Amino acid sequence: MESFGTVGTVLGCSAGIAVCGLVFAAYKLGILYQLFHKTETQSPRHGGESVAEVLRAHGVKYVFTLVGGHISPILVACEKVGIRIVDTRHEATAVFAADAVARLSGTVGVAAVTAGPGLTNTVTAVKNAQMAESPLLLIGGAAGTLLQGRGALQDIDQMSLFKPLCKFCASIRTIREIVPTVRRALAIAQSGTPGPVFIEFPIDTLYPYHLVSKEFGVKNPPKGLMGKIVSWYLSNHLMNLFAGAWETRDVSPLPVDIPQATDDQVQRCIELVSRAKKPVILLGSQATLPPTPVDDIRKALEDLGIPCFLGGMSRGMLGKDSPIHIRQNRRDALKEADLVLLAGTVCDFRLSYGRVLNRRSKIIAVNRDKTQLLKNSDMFWKPTIAIQGDAGSFLVQLSKGLKGHRCPEEWPQSLKAGDVTKENVNRAKADEKTEHHLNPLNVLHRVDELMAEDSIIVADGGDFVGSAAYIMRPRGPMRWLDPGAFGTLGVGGGFALGAKLCRPESEVWIVYGDGSLGYSVAEFDTFTRHKTPVIAVVGNDACWSQISREQVPILGSNVACGLAFTDYHIVADGYGGKGYLIGREDEDRLSNIIRQAQKETQEGKAILLNVLIGKTNFREGSISV
């Protein structure tokens, strides 16, 4: 009898396992979902419409793209709901433009590219956005859900490629997943430390049922049982793909999680700053992130009266001629400071990994990202207080807590005096004659003097741009765009495109090296077609000078560093812009040429100033903090 009971138990367990297996299989195949949710086979709607609805609900105004059949439904649907589609000449430019929009608008920048090579072309730009902490959504096409891994056109493992670069990656498997997945991705992009997110859309999740169903038909199915199984599987997959696709779903933004300093942490910092005699603030790009308006941060800094070194997107935070904005002699100031506040600034190569900080100084570090907050603190520096939180809102809280207290005025005054002395020396170098062509420092000073007060400066290059960082002065917050810590060349065309769309009333200046120009000069076609007139100043010395400057004396060869004095101005003409060649014979009328360029951009022309420059001995450090 016991053996019969054991057999019954085993059979009962086996039956239970079988039932569970069948239920799980029914769940995975979508059979259970289809019992309660209808597949509307006659509907003309497609998945691209769901993407457009969510983007519109999140305030997205632009989608940057290089068109491909995999993503056409998204582009068409976005255009229909009023989202402007801006097509570029390279996928990397599309991502760079979305990055610029994210930085300047406080929303998520969006780029959409086709499968395979379309996506691989974006890798550098996505990595740059990751390191620059820009909230960005990359939409990618993909092979159909049943064809992935089977040798379909442009089919590669895209998810593995982007998982190391993005905060969130997802592959859409059914149309009903689109709305919740896009909502989640947009929230993640902005939460914590902002960054890029990636969603791939297999082509059969984007086109309407009547087109997709044609691709699922098997012309010569196997005979017998196997044929019936294959036909059933394909039919079920198709029905599950569209099941519940057009049910009403919430498309509104999800809450965004932003870390904040605690009241106790702020109070401890108030006590430290109130006792400091020689405090210094190093402000990084992260301090400009939402939700705190940059004007509130600027007022907080002015109320504190503490001398500030500004880097990255925070350049221009204090205007052109603030008494507390210090531009020169940072290393000396840090040695003398008794308190240093790192507000979104990281102790990486730009601060010599923390070695420039005085070990006797009190150090307050504020950063949303724990890894960046403590980078190299195990070797070269130690924070007195480390706060994982938003730098902008922290500065506002700190200023409120120190109301009535100001940094001793003789400290910023002494640093400002050093600024004036060094800048006078640099200005004198600009007046020197170079052996050939124009002095690049003089060219940059002329541009700085003549550019409009609302100008946005885009930095894309090495040697020439490094000089520009110490000469050109952004007039206000959010008016300087450089790649950030990754030091990427080629951002110029995309950054300028995004900037001009966000601020159409502003002059947008691209400062190019002649080497970096090669990456995005084709975007003059984009500027022309999309009526986004910008002014590009190209420092043309026919050389990768930043490399040559060290390679030649160390290794004795200029191999691979030499370029030519190419007629880039003619290239701009060919793309529908207007180019000017400027050499030494034009020195006396340089200011007039710049004014003419400004006038022509107001009339809708994108301008390229091809400036032939000579060599100087002016050298400064990194352009980004």
From TrEMBL:
GO biological processes: embryonic cranial skeleton morphogenesis; fatty acid metabolic process; isoleucine biosynthetic process; L-valine biosynthetic process
Limits of the Thiamine pyrophosphate enzyme TPP-binding domain: 460-602
Record-linked CDD domains: TPP_BZL_OCoD_HPCL, TPP_PYR_POX_like
Thiamine pyrophosphate enzyme central domain: residues covered: 266-398
Single GO term (MF): lyase activity
Cellular component, GO, one term: acetolactate synthase complex
Transmembrane segments: 6-27
Gene3D superfamilies in the record: 3.40.50.970, TPP-binding domain (3.40.50.1220)
Occurrences of domain Thiamine pyrophosphate enzyme N-terminal TPP-binding (ranges): 46-161
Essential cofactor(s): thiamine diphosphate; Mg(2+)
PROSITE patterns per record: TPP_ENZYMES
Catalytic reaction(s) noted: (2R)-hydroxyhexadecanoyl-CoA = pentadecanal + formyl-CoA; 2-hydroxyoctadecanoyl-CoA = heptadecanal + formyl-CoA
Topology class, membrane: Single-pass membrane protein
Keyword entries, A-Z: Endoplasmic reticulum, Fatty acid metabolism, Lipid metabolism, Lyase, Magnesium, Membrane, Metal-binding, Thiamine pyrophosphate, Transmembrane, Transmembrane helix
Keyword Transmembrane helix (UniProt): yes
InterPro entries in UniProt: DHS-like_NAD/FAD-binding_dom (IPR029035), THDP-binding (IPR029061), Thiamin_PyroP_enz_cen_dom (IPR012000), Thiamin_PyroP_enz_TPP-bd_dom (IPR012001), TPP-bd_CS (IPR000399), TPP_enz (IPR045229), TPP_enzyme_TPP-bd (IPR011766)
Subcellular location: Endoplasmic reticulum membrane
Taxonomic superkingdom: Eukaryota
UniProt similarity note: Belongs to the TPP enzyme family.
Protein name (Swiss-Prot/TrEMBL): 2-hydroxyacyl-CoA lyase 2
Organism: Seriola dumerili
Phylogenetic lineage: Eukaryota, Metazoa, Chordata, Craniata, Vertebrata
